[in-house]
Amino acid sequence: MGGQIWVSLVKQEDFKCQKCLQKGHFTYQCTGKRKYVERDSRTRLMNKKLKMDEEKAKLETLAKSVALSQKNKKERAKGKKKKR
Ligand SMILES: [Zn+2]
């Protein structure tokens, strides 16, 4: 009963290894290398997004400091327009 039935239903030569994606052996018998799985790209994307957020934050800080220095310049030059 249980998992044993599933194993006995699948012939070893028909079984597709989940690790190297080759037929002929079970995953736990695998001696091959793990194939690159789609799931990895998702993690990569997340890392990329995280990095992008970081960059964005950096840029925002930069933009703020630039805006601040520009504002100071304007105030020093006695800007005609008053902001707020
Ligand atoms: Zn394998």
From TrEMBL:
It comes from the Eukaryota. InterPro entries: Znf_CCHC_sf. GO terms for molecular function: nucleic acid binding; zinc ion binding. Residues 65-84 are annotated as: Disordered. Residues 71-84 have a biased composition (Basic residues). This is Zinc finger CCHC domain-containing protein 10.
